[in-house]
């Protein structure tokens, strides 16, 4: 189970099953691109109607009848996407979305069938978002000696804004150090050698664990520690003593600003297609809090609305348990079961 830390982004890098509801909430910076239903998890839960939610970090699927049955598939884990002819428990022989994923040296296969006839939106949405994710890795991945400099200018990312450009910054990775310049934007820190553009490093704030000042054999230095999952590097930089602490304070401020409001770089332009759902429209899934029984009250009401959206309006009935008028409960449900917390 991933650690519940706002500074650690696990959503795009893990494949997890049957998560507590709190782990299905959108983290800061995560946004919805599409919500599709009914979708069957044909390989793992054949015969079960579910909902697929596609975000800029992962694909979420959960059963409509029992939301504790769910999947979270990080976009970084997906190896390939394709279509495959399968035998669905609800549609028979049909075309389905086939995903191959890798996590913790294990391969996972997922097959999702859209139960709406002639609808391929689940395929186009997943493929489009995964392509956008793969094309925006500089927002999230540390890069060494990459082609990020052209004619002494940093190749800017679409959502990037330069905040600091500091000349005369030494990279202390060698015995004598290398002189270059350091740039910091709203999404990353970049250092590049003056004599060789190819000798550079691009560090998204997402990969940075800490920024501090430490003593080194070169004197006081700015030290950047990279998360273990991104290489675990410890990088030292030296500048004029009068600029060291102001530069340190500026970088810490930018790092904290990113942590508070991260930019993951995954953007989609849906053109003239149907508008995609907003966060408010899926609040029943991502803002439900801790688990309450097999199906919490908000998820219960959401599933009721989904099943009754084309039916006549249901008249409320009086509930002695609450002393209120409520919508009639489905067979097999009680108010007590909806509000009990399972341990």
Automatic annotation (TrEMBL):
One of its GO terms (molecular function) is phosphatidylinositol-3-phosphate binding. The gene is LOC106116617. Belongs to the BBS5 family. This is Bardet-Biedl syndrome 5 protein homolog. Keywords: Cell membrane, Cell projection, Cilium, Cytoplasm, Cytoskeleton, Membrane. It holds the Pfam family BBL5. GO terms for cellular component: BBSome; centriolar satellite; ciliary basal body; ciliary membrane. It is found in: Cell projection, Cilium membrane; Cytoplasm, Cytoskeleton, Microtubule organizing center, Centrosome, Centriolar satellite. Its main location: membrane. The keyword Membrane applies. GO terms for biological process: cilium assembly. It comes from Papilio xuthus (Asian swallowtail butterfly). Residues 30-84, 160-214 form the BBSome complex member BBS5 PH domain. Transmembrane segments: none annotated.
